[in-house]
From TrEMBL:
Primary site of residence: membrane
Membrane topology field: Multi-pass membrane protein
Location relative to the cell: Cell outer membrane
Record family assignment: Belongs to the TonB-dependent receptor family.
GO CC terms: cell outer membrane
Domain TonB-dependent receptor plug: 242-340
Position of the signal peptide: none
Species of origin: Sphingobacterium olei
Keywords: Cell outer membrane, Membrane, Transmembrane, Transmembrane beta strand, Transport
PROSITE patterns xrefs: PROKAR_LIPOPROTEIN, TONB_DEPENDENT_REC_3
Protein name: SusC/RagA family TonB-linked outer membrane protein
SUPFAM superfamilies given in the database record: Carboxypeptidase regulatory domain-like, Porins
Recorded superkingdom: Bacteria
Amino acid sequence: MNFFRGFLTSRLFFRIMRISIIFNIVFTACLQLSAHALNAQHINETKVVLALNNESLLDAIHKIETSTPFIFLFNKTDVSDIHGLYLSKSTHTVQEILEELLRGRNITFRQINKKIVLRKVEKNILSTLHMGQQTMISGSVVDSVGGGIAGVAVRVVSKPQFTVTDREGRFELQGIPITDRLQFQILGYAEKVVPATTTMRVVLHMTQEAIEEVYVNTGYQKLPRERSAGSFAQPDMELFDQRTGSMNVLQRLDGLIPGLTVNNARGTDQYQIRGISSVGVYTPSSLTPYAGTDRSPLVVVDGVPVNSINDVNPQDVESINVLKDATATSIWGSRASNGVIVISTKKGRNSGKIQVDYNMFYNFMGKPDLSYFPVLNSRQFITAATEIFDINNTSWATVSQPAYSVSPGVAPHEQILFDGDPTRGIISVAQRDYLLDSLSGLDNRRQLEELFYRNALLSNHTLSLRGGQEKYRFYGSLSYTDDRNTQPKNRNNTYKVNLRQDYSPHERINLYLVTDLTNRRNASKPILTTGSNFLPYQMFADESGNPIAMPWLYRISSLQQDYETRSGISLDYVPLLEGEYGYNDSDYLSARVNSGLRIKLLEGLDFEGIYGWNRGVTNTTGYLSDRSYTVRNMAASFATGSKVDNTIRYYMPASGGRYTTGNTLQTNWTIRNQLNYNKAWLDRVHQLTALAGFEQSESTSRGNTNTVWGYHDQMLTAIPLDYATLGAGIANPVMLYNSTRSIWNYAMDYQNTENTARFRSVYANISYTFLERYSINTSWRWDQSSLFGIDKASQNRPVWSIGGRYDIAKEYFLTDVKWINQLAVRATYGLTGTAPSPGTAASKDIIASSTTSSSFPEGAYRIAIPANRGLTWESTRTINFGTDFGFFNNRVIGSIDIYRRRTSDLLGNRPANPFSGYTTIVGNLGDLENKGIELGLRVIPVQYRDFQWRIVLNASYNKNKITKLSTSLTNPTGNSIISNNAYGGFFEGYAAYAIFAYRYEGLDGMGDPQIRLSDGSISKALNVAKPEDMVFMGTYQPKWAGGFTNGFQYRSIGLNINVIGNLGHVMRRDVNRKYNGNRMNPSAGSISVGNEHADFANRWKNPGDEAHTDIPRWVGNVSASTRDRWVNYYMFADRNVVDASFIKLRDITLSYALPVAPIKRVGIFAMSVQAQMGNIMLWKANAYNIDPEYITPLTGLRTQLSGQHTFSVGTNITF
């Protein structure tokens, strides 16, 4: 193992990678052939599994000979000129294959014992003569989802003339009577005869036998779908490829997979398969507070798990399999409780020549909608600010004190109110009213849109090449992605190089190597974010375009002048200029290497070895010059004395900027060795597929940050700090916030972290099928994890599953029921598990350094995570029943699954022994249960000549309940439930992601909120509610999720309409949060807050208002407000929890495939163009204009609404 680690970090390894990339970007195309000889001795009984891709008849004969007992006899000159044969991978008899390959070629065949004799028949020249109008016919042959079908025999009905479609399904025929008909034939698809037209697009549908040959990829093996009892799902790849709203692979799956929920609301689990299986460990700094155990699906690329799905280019994806139940996922062991998404990237094909593809799109996404936030306009704001202003509650003497200046200074409207107060008499009442009215007429929204936002744009260009021969095949791509967000001067560019090489030096040996490099570069300016929540009248530039200073955001002018005089440092603050005084850059480089070796040891027995390695490095730099306010303010804050009498002393550099560097390194490796066995006996009466293997993996993450001050970017020098003095505290600083100021109040200048997790596993999987209709699957895996310390009993986790499948449609009593093409039932049961994330829990103490306390300025150690010797794995048991069906010549195909998942020994924060010094400890704290049903359905209601209408429906329902939970809540109250609710919403006896609320009874005669208690009484007393008084409102994770697609195809024109929906969940709505104080102003230094919710204008003001409003009154005195009432009764009221259900028209795509003849003249083999509109219609269950994808459902705070009503154009060109 040390050898591997040393080799992977050596220069030799990277040289090999460079050589491989530089000298092997020759891209090619691929074919797979697998043939199994059975015991039958006649060509109409002997079956083989065969696939051809642009090959010659001689190649096909050779492969049949090596896979069967037959020998071919023929005249080589009769067959040597037959090339360009295509055949989809399928199982057929030798006779069926020969009939297909020789159809229309004037060659007959005959079996004599074990010999097959081929003989050419001379053409009758007169039979080719034809009278009537003739023309050239061109077109394409595609499958039901629009993919080209290669190798289709296109025959003219009236005369012996034919051709074969190429690798993209294209064909041409010269001299065809316009009144004639064409016949389309290929094994695996139903034959079709249609009238000839000059430009044609013909759709063929798979036969029942071909459908049964669909394979499922688990990441460890490929298994025919009809032999697997597991619950799998595969997306419509045509719809997947068309989506241009995101370069994230998982985001493109929205609505395409039954059971996969995509929830884009902030603070939620974005991707879930079949609900939740872990509550996690509470980490309050995270947007998903319970993230200690990963709740997202495991993502596997080319057989190896990956950490970042963002490194995968969707244009390189060939297929996706989503594994959902225990039988499907258990092969992945303890990491598969949340489901597995298996992604296979594109491979080469041995087509004999290079195919070049160019794919691009531009997605125009516009600016964010600032009107989405319901806030006061300028006139409403000034009116409200005037109404609540009371100099008796907050006097000028108070706000002008240095100790008070930790809050912001006095906003312009407040300065006018203070100056116009009769007790000060700076200006008259008339002047005050005039100035306030002037502010009421200002509106900064246009400046916000023009100065702080730009039109977002997402574009991608991917150039791929493929080609090769039988022994060596390539697929490679180069891609560039430009992701411009709405903030000006920001850049986010991604460059990718992907290369897959397959080499077969011997018929028994296959090797492959995948090398993938990703470089993502981000550059941004430290521009402050703002929006409608800032003061609506405050402009950022004057009429001439000059930036406006806003020093009042930090302190009043008199304090500013005093600090500037004594420190000698300007403390002016101009938001528009701050972005020019620094930068933030990041450079991410990721290398992914997957290699594999497969050796055929014996008939049916293979050895397979896989090695996967991934390394991602992110380097970040942040710089603020000494012109930035942050650096100037820091220098003045740690200055003593005075510039006036030359006693000034700077403990932080007064010249030079702040320079911060960061480095994160993520390294993963996986080694897997396994034996595969695949055998069929007695004409497939018995079929057995088995594997057994050993796997070991390691994941290591390291990170550090370092900050220096007094940095000069030209000289690359910095000034060292006296940390001992700064840590002890600076007495009597210029800015008198406190008597002393310490650097420990600020972020550490240096931090370093490291986490390592190791897994070791042995596993086995067996699938047996009897009479091609009775199948049983079983798997077993034994995982060991280093996350549990050295306790062997805790380290080990056995994982297993068992399942069965019964193909009813293959029974003799249904053979005459022609409308039933597929009908099978499935049942599975198994166990999976989950380990805690690195650094969150262990059976031994986790020690960390501590340098953030002034008590230990030289550093110390602390117990970061206390030991829990009783810590064990989470365990998830899943039972699944399913059915697969296909009716009416497979024009109706689908599956239904019903499941139940029970998770025990949940990992999370539980109460600790109080004598340990900790209130909580990470451990096993409870159980939960999931139940659900899923439907995947594809229907073709209309298929008439060149027109097809296709419907795809994916729908799922999930209901969960936490049946047991040990929490740290002691003597819970209604308020503690609300507070804990804000950290994830997990309560025993309720669904996960629960939202609770007070039973609101409106306002009393004084304008104070009231609630109804469980005994029926009404109260407004402070925090009087108990748990039994609270109302369970529902869950903020959707219960129903899915997608609905209508696809229309007429010849070369396609239209796809995709609708997605999340239903059955709830959210808090945004409400007024201003109830006391006499100031309406932003936070110190913030231009993103300051305005108030529009509901503030509708608050209770006078007795009797309670009849038409339920918004509590404003109280000027903060102490009185918090002493006499509980405004949380309103903010967290049941009437402020609303239905979050929504249905959105995610995208509409119009595509057109250009005719072959004109583009062929300019060297283009095929070309299609598309236009797409995204997020153009929304139905929502709430009446408050809330888009449930743009809100934090637990808090009710809206997020910036962007990416709506987008428009994109794209093209795909093949040379």
